[in-house]
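Dear Dr. L.,

I hope this message finds you well. Following up on our conversation about the binding site, I have prepared a predicted three-dimensional model of the protein together with 2'-O-acetyl adenosine-5-diphosphoribose. For your records, I am including the exact sequence and ligand specification that went into the calculation, followed by the structure tokens. Please feel free to forward this to your student if that is useful.
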Amino acid sequence: MRKIPEISQLIDILYQTKQIVVLTGAGISAESGIPTFRGEEGLWKQYRAEDLATPIAFIKDPKLVWEWYDWRRGIIASKKPNAGHKILGRWEKIFPNFILITQNIDGLHQKAGSKNILELHGNIWKVRCTEERTITENHDIPLEEIPPHCPDCGALLRPHVVWFGESLSSSVLYKAFQVSSSCEIIFSIGTSAVVQPAASLPLAAAEANAKIVEINPDPTPLTSYADFSFRGKAGEILPLINKELNKKLKDRKE
Ligand code: OAD
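The resulting structure of the complex is given below.
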């Protein structure tokens, strides 16, 4: 296993930190086999977001939009959490104040044991009634009916996800900014850091003197603000950090 010198500096800080925030994006699920959005192989290279992920697209052609989500649900359902998801699940148990903020809708963090999660962009396993706005879980693969309808009122159901041109849940967003601006360290893992308002969370943390740790194989607009920039895959870097952290925790017990 390779050794990165900055990791020991990071562990010294992590060890004394009381409030840790982790922001994740599609890159943390890439090693589970779920496509990211940007980049050469990204979903937005193959599909037009305006045809599939906007309120207008849904009004125009709910069947097409649901077929696309049904296809993505099929891909996601067959995937498992990777080492990165699992380590973040464990950190929640180690650190007393640990909050995970994710832009991902795939539910893999929950599958890996994370509980304290703020889902900024919703969850692909939830559906919302377009009339009553009630939210329910739905894990059918494939969906029994496309587009699906509300069993209570018969109105169209939509994926409980945030589309382009829509606002994020104000309560989730408020909490995300609140925890980010009161944390001591914020990780930005597997996100291109270009989609707002998520991209501003690490900057809000830094303004309140938190350290920024970025894990990404490629540079992003956040990289120049990062105190620690680990250029690699989440499923490789997080185990390296975790290994050193475990050593330090073991030393403390002895
Ligand atoms: P992107 O697809 O924009 O960015 C994925 C990032 O992950 C890139 O910076 C990659 O370099 C990085 N990456 C790839 N493999 C990685 C790995 N193994 N480990 C770590 N990083 C890796 O995805 P997001 O930043 O999540 O919104 O995109 C933000 C939002 O844009 C998404 O939530 C989605 C999309 O449109 C909605 O659907 C509302």
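In brief: The mean pLDDT is 95.

With kind regards,
A. P.
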